[in-house]
Amino acid sequence: MNAPSTRNATLTIGNNNYDFPIKSGSVGPDVIDISSLYGKTGAFTFDPGFMSTASCESKITYIDGDAGILRYRGYPIEQVAQGDFLETCYLLLEGELPNKAQKEDFVSRITNHTMVHEQMARFYQGFRRDAHPMAVMVASVGALSAFYHDSTDINDPHQRMVASMRMIAKVPTLAAMAYKYTIGQPFIYPRNDLDYTSNFLRMCFAVPCEEYKVNPILSRALDRIFILHADHEQNASTSTVRLAGSSGANPFACIAAGIACLWGPAHGGANEAALKMLEEIGTVDKIPAFIEKVKDKNSNVRLMGFGHRVYKNYDPRAKIMQKTAYEVFDALGVDDDPLLNVARELERIALSDEYFISRKLYPNVDFYSGIILRAMGFPTSMFTVLFAVARTIGWISQWKEMMSEPGMKIGRPRQLYVGPTLRDYVPMEKRK
């Protein structure tokens, strides 16, 4: 917790002045603590979208959108991406990078929790074959609480840790099962001799009739995608997990709520939208006409994969993703992919055209991730599922942090009521 503030902000309402303490984090802008606002003044604040409201204190992720900075537990994302995903999971969950013994123990515990209860396979048979994989994920992750009763006591720190381990380990298995079910192929069981991401790729793409060899470059690329999407401060889905958790809901239900929120096209569907845009453009020679439509105020054409609600500078994850895209295409022997060519030219234009520079429309992480996932063989319906696999560690870390806070309160936003004032009920026979 921060030390008591010695600075105040003064709010004037009519002839009355009210003082509120100013808090400072370890880095970032100051925050005015208005938790006593209603008690002192009888008034609320109005902040649609919570654009100027801090809902919690957190030690996990720091973002400076103007400077293009993303840090996990103080470490720049560019440095964290040099490690592997399970190391990132340990960092987010525990607060520090693991030593060799801690890493080996953590990997072992995750690996030995990757299987799910066999009855979960029958659970999947209740879905239509054409069900969206995200619909399957929301239901199956929520259903974990029906299979693992011994890790739903949120007041027990040990059970909270067991639930965290199970979530990190089992969500990839459930995601692979969702994919296999929608394409009509048998489920592939996890293998303990493979690393986390290689195991996931095998569960998605192996078939029983032949041996599947994981391409290490593709595995490393997906591992990097997972790292870059692991956490992103108090975004919509993370806030959803915290809000659900504040009621005392079990952790599996909280993560299912986060997945449901992530499903929204304004949140987790951005890479799918960027890929669709590249496919609609088709070839490099059609880019000038497309750019003209983007600049036309009377056109409904939007540039997808550029700009970010938080980042007003180059998304630091995008640079890593660009490099990863080139590595994947080289590994697959793709020398002249039309979509990659379109992406390269769009990026060049956006970084040199004053129209885009003045509006700070730089490429974001979703611009390249969709092309990479498509090259790996994933259909667009799986893109958000993969996002959920990556973000699970961020959600569970945020949930665990919140549950360990003394005096945690249930989330209860206020509202500005604009409906009818007091009126009398009219019996049916007297209504016009």
In words, what does this structure look like?
The chain has 432 residues and is mostly helical. Helix content is 49%, strand content 6%. It contains 18 helices and six strands. α9 (216-228) runs antiparallel to α17 (365-376), α10 packs across α18 and α14 packs parallel to α17 (365-376). The radius of gyration is 24 Å and the shape is globular.
Count up the helices: 18
Distance between the termini: 60 Å
Strand share of the residues?
5-15%
- Helix-and-strand structural type: mainly alpha
What is the approximate shape?
Answer: globular
Oligomer type: single chain
Work out the radius of gyration: 24 Å
Largest beta-sheet details: 3 strands, antiparallel
Main sheet strand line-up? 1-2-3
Give the tally of β-strands. 6
Q: Mean pLDDT, rounded to whole units? A: 92
- Which runs of at least 5 residues are low in confidence (pLDDT < 50)? none
